[in-house]
Amino acid sequence: MPLLDHIQFPADLRKLDLAELPQLAQELRRFIIDVVATKEGHLGASLGVVELTIALHYTFNTPEDLLIWDVGHQAYGHKILTGRKAQFHTNRQFEGLSGFPKRSESPYDVFGTGHSSTSISALMGMALAAKISGKTDRKHIAVIGDASIASGMAFEGLNHAGDTDVDMLVVLNDNAIGIDPSVGALKHYLTQVKQGNPSQDNIFEALNFTYSGPIDGHDLPALIAEMERLKKVPGPKFLHVVTTKGKGLQQAEENQVTYHAPGKFDRETGELLPKNTADLPPKFQDVFGHAIVELAQRNPKIVGITPAMPTGSSLKYMMAALPERAFDVGIAEQHAVTMAAGIAAEGLVPFCNIYSTFLQRAYDQVIHDVALQKLPVVFCLDRAGIVGKDGPTHHGAFDLAYLRCVPNLIVCAPKDGPELRNLLYTAQLGLDRPMAIRYPRGRDLARHGDTPFSEINIGKGETIQKGTEIAVLSIGPIGAKLYEQQTHLEQPQKVGHYNMRFVKPLDTQLLHRIFTQYREVVTVEDGCLAGGFGSAVLEWAQEQGYALPIKRFGIPDRFVTHGPTATLNETLGLDTKTIITYINQKTRPPL
Ligand SMILES: Cc1ncc(C[n+]2csc(CCOP(=O)(O)OP(=O)(O)O)c2C)c(N)n1
Ligand SMILES: CC(=O)[C@@H](O)[C@H](O)COP(=O)(O)O
Ligand SMILES: [Mg+2]
């Protein structure tokens, strides 16, 4: 790589002639493809912004000038050009580079991202800080995608910034797709703008931004010339750039949804490496996706909602089968929840499927719009627990804790696919309150097929195995995993195992039996210990006057890094081996 080999930092890049930059873009693309082909990660977004990345670092004096990447999944080129080329092969690996910008990783990562639509507000804060502290020369730039800019938070930032004279440049990277095709009226507006249709006023100009574009985001001279010009324009500016997601790899351009994060592929041909998944158990997302179609075909009141994750949540199956009752609302978690509340208020049964981590953004809506009014919205929280290589921005660590404290809310987690189906079935039978069903990223432990639906009593746990000394109380598939390893128990007859299913309401009848029959209780959950399932059991036991020792396994009070889920669970002491070792120590007969 004749040019890229000599670039460690943007200062090296700025020594190149303008005419050399297209060649550099080719090399940078090749570098990204080569690494992601084997190490996996987000591909299409970074390929699409190769020229934009080069142009920004060429034009602006980063890191003195501040550059924020919204979401940050498109920042691989940025990482490679800002001192991390040699480590890039560790991207998203345990103890390697983060897949997203991270302040502790580099001074060029001026703001940590992962969740979308934060860049404009963060940038505005930095631009205001510069003004207050007299850093008048500093430039501020945010790059935000067309799906992310449609989110409420981005609009809040634009609305405020446009009413000030802060020096900031918002670059809209418009490729007309998020993970799935972009949706919404703004998408149609942007399409009109790109087609040169002058029939409407420019929204961004109306918000008091100096608007420029749309320009071809793969044309380096045009990008650089326009950025140089905008550098001299005071106040809030908006540059509309049109790119192709996956640019430079044919398959990624043609199949943008799959190549958002394609897994391993052939670096030369771009073909996905074959995965033999036919005999594997289904993914939990697919158990949801197929069950909701089955249920919705029987129950005309069911409505499906996803904020921008039709593929990731598998709501796409319902969107294909019953398009009039399944909605992708874009990256709009708050809207999704309150819209679900409205649907429930009218007597229909909304299933609002949101990744656990993204529901954090709609917490007030869960409380104020849903729970307070006791509206029977069904929250399906996918990606609960440790998600792996996306890391701390994406782990679903907090949901049990942040939901358990909300009155009126039923909170549960199935141990496996059939139980997920049954909880979904139960949720549409006519609940008088909202219910949250959380399940993890990845696959069930076994293939069960589409088992017949049956109702689960709300607040009732399940005895998996009776024992005499230690009672294991688990919530979710982590319990099934543990049970699968029971042959490693030295004294299995001493160990009882209970699949509690519900964090709220707790099965207090079952708990009374357990607390009177055993000498120690062990709780197991793949959520944060603070305020989670084990906490609920502890609080209950204390209130009831039980003095049994309670050992809790869960996520400790720290943010969990990125890496393979199994590795992370080991570092957290949440792997089955650690839990079984603990139980064996406790059940060993005295010497
Ligand atoms: C709050 C939030 N919701 C959902 C997501 C999941 N997500 C990650 S990237 C993405 C699409 C982003 O699309 P766009 O902004 O157009 O960027 P592109 O991938 O096209 O570069 C989504 C929905 C997220 N990261 N944050
Ligand atoms: C960047 C982002 O937020 C998504 O692309 C996320 O990485 C998807 O996660 P899953 O792979 O679990 O669907
Ligand atoms: Mg996009």
Automatic annotation (TrEMBL):
Residues given in the record as Mg(2+) binding sites: 146, 175
Transketolase-like pyrimidine-binding domain location: 282-447
A family per Pfam: Transketolase_C
InterPro entries to which the protein is assigned, alphabetical: Dxylulose-5-P_synthase, THDP-binding, Transketo_C/PFOR_II, Transketolase-like_Pyr-bd, Transketolase_C
UniProt pathway annotation: Metabolic intermediate biosynthesis; 1-deoxy-D-xylulose 5-phosphate biosynthesis; 1-deoxy-D-xylulose 5-phosphate from D-glyceraldehyde 3-phosphate and pyruvate: step 1/1
GO molecular function: 1-deoxy-D-xylulose-5-phosphate synthase activity; magnesium ion binding; thiamine pyrophosphate binding
Alphabetized UniProt keyword annotations: Isoprene biosynthesis, Magnesium, Metal-binding, Thiamine biosynthesis, Thiamine pyrophosphate, Transferase
Catalytic activity from the UniProt record: D-glyceraldehyde 3-phosphate + pyruvate + H(+) = 1-deoxy-D-xylulose 5-phosphate + CO2
Enzymatic class: transferase
EC number: 2.2.1.7
The protein's required cofactors: Mg(2+); thiamine diphosphate
CDD domains xrefs: TPP_DXS, TPP_PYR_DXS_TK_like
UniProt KW Metal-binding keyword: yes
Cited function: Catalyzes the acyloin condensation reaction between C atoms 2 and 3 of pyruvate and glyceraldehyde 3-phosphate to yield 1-deoxy-D-xylulose-5-phosphate (DXP).
Homology family: Belongs to the transketolase family. DXPS subfamily.
Subunit structure as annotated in this protein's UniProt entry: Homodimer.
Descriptive protein name: 1-deoxy-D-xylulose-5-phosphate synthase
Organism of derivation: Sediminicola luteus
